[in-house]
Amino acid sequence: MLVLVKFRIRGNLRFLSHIETVKVFQRAFARAGVKVQHSRGFNPRPKLSLPLPRSVGVESDDDLLSLRVERPVAQTQSNAFGGPSPDRGGSQSGSFDAEAFKAELSGRLPDGLELLAVDVAQTETLPQPKGATYVLAVRPEYLDDDLKANIEHLLESKKLNLRRRIDAKGNTRNLDVRGFLKSIELCNQNIVVECKISSAGSIRVDEILKLLQLDVDKLAAPVRRTNVQWQ
């Protein structure tokens, strides 16, 4: 069955790469006895996926992991993790206990990684991100008229061309990212950026900072991704 795990990642764990985040979950599943399905072939791999990769250094309040686990055969023969469970006198088909799964897995994860919800997907189609919100907390001394004018300029622009690095060799290509920006709002000391995500891609966090003429030294807190829209 396809299981969806929503989680929050904060603190120093924000510096984990995409691959390292997956490995943290792989180890936690192994310790919890979760029977994750693997691909076939000479080098089988666990069927885990993070549909919306997170940039290194960015916190996330609404991240998602999908995994395929072995479906319990019978309630008296297996628990939520595929292992043995005590006989409670039942003989009906097994069911997935999302709360037990969440409780067991939470105890196997490091501080800074918090499980929010566990659900069984109703279809076999993996969720796809359609939009996300980024919150940038700016230091008060940089919340000036120049920043406000720059935000207005970005919203009024019909095109926003950037050079994007596309491979490890340093090759770049020109890209218009204006279509990925839905809105930019200044709320108190935060800049809230709503982004669109499509099959063509999306705008990156470093590109958002570049357009706003900000760097990490001008931020009062780590960039945080919130309110991801999934389909």
List the helices and strands and how they pair.
Blueprint: E1 2-9, H1 18-32, E2 48-49, E3 59-68, H2 98-106, E4 113-120, E5 129-137, H3 145-156, E6 161-165, E7 172-176, E8 181-187, E9 190-196, H4 205-211, E10 224-230
Parallel strand pairs: 3-10
Antiparallel strand pairs: 1-3, 1-4, 2-3, 5-9, 5-10, 6-7, 8-9
CATH architecture of the largest domain: 2-Layer Sandwich
Bin the helical content.
10-25%
**How do the SSEs run, as a string of H and E?**
EHEEHEEHEEEEHE
Please give the domain count.
Answer: 2
The tally of strands reads 10
Q: What is the assigned CATH homologous superfamily of the largest domain?
A: Pseudouridine synthase I, catalytic domain, N-terminal subdomain
Q: Name the CATH class of the largest domain.
A: Alpha Beta
Low-confidence stretches: 74-93
Mean pLDDT: 87
Helix count? 4
Distance between the termini: 18 Å
Gyration radius over CA: 21 Å
User: Could you describe the largest sheet, including whether it forms a barrel?
Assistant: 8 strands, mixed
Structural class computed from helices and strand pairing:
alpha+beta
Beta-strand portion reads: 25-35%
What is the CATH fold-level name of the largest domain?
Alpha-Beta Plaits
CA-based shape: elongated
How would you characterize the overall build of this protein?
- The protein has 231 residues and is an alpha+beta fold.
- It has 4 helices and 10 strands.
- The chain has 2 domains: 2-120, Pseudouridine synthase I, catalytic domain, N-terminal subdomain (Alpha-Beta Plaits, 2-Layer Sandwich); 129-230, Alpha-Beta Plaits, CATH 3.30.70.
- The chain has helices spanning 18-32, 98-106, 145-156, 205-211; strands at residues 2-9, 48-49, 59-68, 113-120, 129-137, 161-165, 172-176, 181-187, 190-196, 224-230.
